[in-house]
Structure formats: C-alpha cells, structure tokens
Amino acid sequence: MRGAETEYNQVAYPSAIYPQTHPDRLATLGRLFGLAPENVESARVLELGCGDGANLIAMAAALPNSHFTGIDLASDPVRRGGEVIKAMDISNVDLRVGDITQAAFGDARFDYIIAHGLYSWVPAPVRDRILQICRDHLSENGIAYITYNAYPGNHLRDLARGMMQYHARNFPDPLQQIRQARGLLKLVSEARTPPDVFQQVVKQEMERCLKYTDAGFYHDDLSAMNQPVYFWQFAGHAKTFGLQFLAEADFCDMQTDGLAPQVLEILKGLDPRNFIGREQYLDFFKGRAFRQTLICRDNLRVDRQVQTGRLADLLVSADVGSVAINGDSEDFAGPHGAVISTADAAARAALNHLGAIWPKRISIRELAVSSHLPTLVPVRKDPARLLAFFLRCYEIGFVDLHTWSPHFVTEISKRPVAAPLARYHATLSDVVPTPRHTTLKVDGPIARKLVRLLDGTNDRAAFLQKVSVDERSFDAEALDALLHHLARAGILVG
C-alpha cells in the first residue's frame, strides 16, 4: 500500500468546496427530522481528512462566529491551506497535520463532523476511529457527514478498477499510471465489434473516469485502498459506536421518484420501522455507487415522517424561472433541466418571486405573507398547502431549504465589493468560492481581473479604464452584464 502522506504530497488531491458538507445543509436535515441541531452561526465544526482546508476556510470566512478545525495526514496540503489562512487573516479556522488514529481532541465537542472521501479509502482500524471520534466528540445534538463508496453500484467500478490497477502497476510515475489506466479502459471498451454488454459497461466506466481531474482519478480509482460497503453494513458499523442513520445529505436521494410502479408497491409493503432495509433496497433499485450519509447519536429521537410544519421556520431559495403559461397552469424550469407545472396560484406566485430574487433566501413564513405576493393572501388561512408544496419541491431537488442566510448582496452598488476570499482566489485560478459555499467559474482574464478589482475602491469608470488597458473590446454593456452575472452568483458583499 502506498504511504498516504507521501502520495497526497506527491499528487495533491484537487482543492474543492463541497456544498453538501456545509453545516447549514446538515442542520436543515436535522430540523426536518425532528432534531435540534446547533445554530450554524455559533457552531464548532471538525473535518477529518481536510486536505488543504479549502472547504473549511470557505465556511470560516462566511461564518466568523463559528470555529472550524481540520486534520489531515498529508503535510503539504495543510501547509498550503495555512498560507491561505494567513494571507486572508482568518482567525476561526485551525488546520493540523496528524494521523486521526493518534489524534487527541481532549474534551472537545463538535456540533458538526465532516469526513468526506475518507471512510472507504482507509483501512478498517481507521474506519473504526472515524466513528469513534464521532461517538466521543459529537455534541449532544451533533450531526456527522460521512461519505463512502457503496454497493451494488460499485461492483461495476470494481470491475474497471481491478483491470486498471493491474495495468498501472507497471508504471512508476503517477502521471503515466493515470494515462495508462484510462488508455486500458478505452482499449477494452473497443475490444469487440460489435461491443457486447461487458464492453458497454467498461465504456460507461471509462466515460466516468474521464470526467475526473487527473489527481481525483488517481486517488479515487487507482488508490490501493478503496473499500465499498453496502449501506446496511455501514449502518451496522455506526450502530456499534452508538450512532444511528439520520438521512442522506441530498434529500432527493431518499425519494422514490422514477421507480417503476411494481417497485413502489414493494417499498410500500416494507415495515415502516425498517428504514435501514428501505434505504438498502433503494440502493439496489437505483444501483447506487456513492453515499453521503448523516449520522447522529442513537439516543436521539429521529422522526422519519417529515412534518410540513417544520418548514415554517426554515428559509427557501430557488434558481427557477417561468417558461410557459397554459391557462391556469404555469411551467417552471429549475436546476439540472428539471421542469414542473402547477396551477396553484400561491405556488406560482412564490416560485416567480423566488426566481426573481435568486440567490437570496427568504423565510417561508415571510414568503406566505409577503407584500410582493398579493395572490398569497388565501394561504395565510391555509399555510399547510404552501408548506407541503415546498416540501415536495425539496424532495425532487427543485428548491433548497436552509436554516441560515450568508451575507451577500444582489444589488450592484456604485463601488461594488466581492467577497475577500473570492478576490484572493481570482489571483490563483478561474474558480472562486462564494459566500453561499458554492464555486463560480470566472471565464477568461477579463472576468478574473474584474473580480480582483471589486474591492470597493473602483466605480464603473475605473473598471472600464483598468480592464480596457488590456482588453479594448470591454465596454460598459459588457461590464454591466458581467457585474449582473457576479451578483446572481452571490459573490458581491457590498
């Protein structure tokens, strides 16, 4: 087995921000299932296997009154993260080099624990230690986020991975291993004419591997340690440490949309108390290969029948827009090409308002009585209808629910200001973090330069002068369009 510190220093794992790990996401799901998670604005967060800390640093910048701790075995990524922390003068995040099997956290309690890309990629004793840390250091209402490769979907990945590892072992250089492994999959996928089922499966895996960055592919698919598990096995492992399954980080992953009628009948016939079995059968039916599981202490009462009333104190946001009106019905386009249709006047007004103010988050309670939505007056007498509508939209991934709203503005001021962390990253790459814990790709040198200039000292005339030194084609119309794009992404803070 390759030494973990050596390989992650030699081939740096891609720096990334993971929206699904944010405490707000975990707290929202906790609230929906009847828990009382800690307010994310005053939370204590631990990330195991934090890499260069990009995920935690972005959280810390947006949540200055919370505290974040990260630990990773590889020293080079931690050093790079420390340089960012120092440059940005962020005082509420601490990155450490260390082996989690030896790490001591004393009496510390964390409201949220993150272990992304770790559980399946470490030996069994380390997997035990991850859950032991959760048991010993989660606060009473704490929630942990753990990802892992899952069967049955990973049986197909194992098929490809075994062939790639056999071939790649003949090449000492990591870059050669990456190229040769992908090349082998391509060769195997084209080995028969016409291709049979085996070649089709290999081609599917090849296409998946090509979507990865080289470093991500190297660590995820060519790693000597990669142990998928069935969900029931993970749940049983957690149970031995006094922990229980709470939910999946993507709520839509727990739903049955798209399954055949006969499958839905089988799922309805399962004992509702056997929620582990239900989730396992969903994995079978969906061929799931990866899970993002939330766990909590097993002494907490998890109410798995989500009550619509729990949405009343949450916030909602939606990147949606009206695309057609057919009589009393209106079609809305949302994320990932999804389209829904509704004839409910209140729902139509709410979605139109949310689309207009995106990416702002608004309390559902406020939305129901908003002066912007006169058609919602009847809803004040029957709020459950709107709550049920939003719950259904959340189930299918059409809207997002939140417990907290980050600071950003959507109006473009005379001298606009981009989030400091976004300005910093614009000096390094074309991908910058937003206060919403997402990333934005700023295409081209003009966009990157503009983001760097958004420090509150420049007005439109200054932008045009400073940018046009290099780009004569950049005019006032292009500037306004780019500023509007940045505002809609939520990176402006003033």
Describe this entry's structure for a reader.
There is one protein chain. With 494 residues, the chain is of the alpha/beta class. The protein folds into four domains: 4-152 and 227-297, Vaccinia Virus protein VP39 (Rossmann fold), CATH 3.40.50; 160-213; 312-402; 420-489. The chain has helices spanning 4-10, 23-32, 54-62, 75-88, 124-137, 154-168, 174-189, 197-211, 214-221, 231-239, 261-268, 275-286, 345-357, 364-368, 383-395, 420-426, 444-453, 460-468, 476-489; strands at residues 44-48, 67-72, 93-97, 110-115, 138-151, 229-230, 243-248, 290-297, 315-317, 321-326, 329-333, 339-342, 362-363, 400-402, 431-433, 439-441. Strands 1, 2, 3, 4, 5, 6, 7 and 8 form an eight-stranded mixed sheet that branches. Strand 11 and strand 12 form a beta hairpin. Helix 6 crosses helix 7 (174-189), helix 6 (154-168) crosses helix 8 (197-211) and helix 7 (174-189) runs antiparallel to helix 8 (197-211). The longest helix has 16 residues, at 174-189.
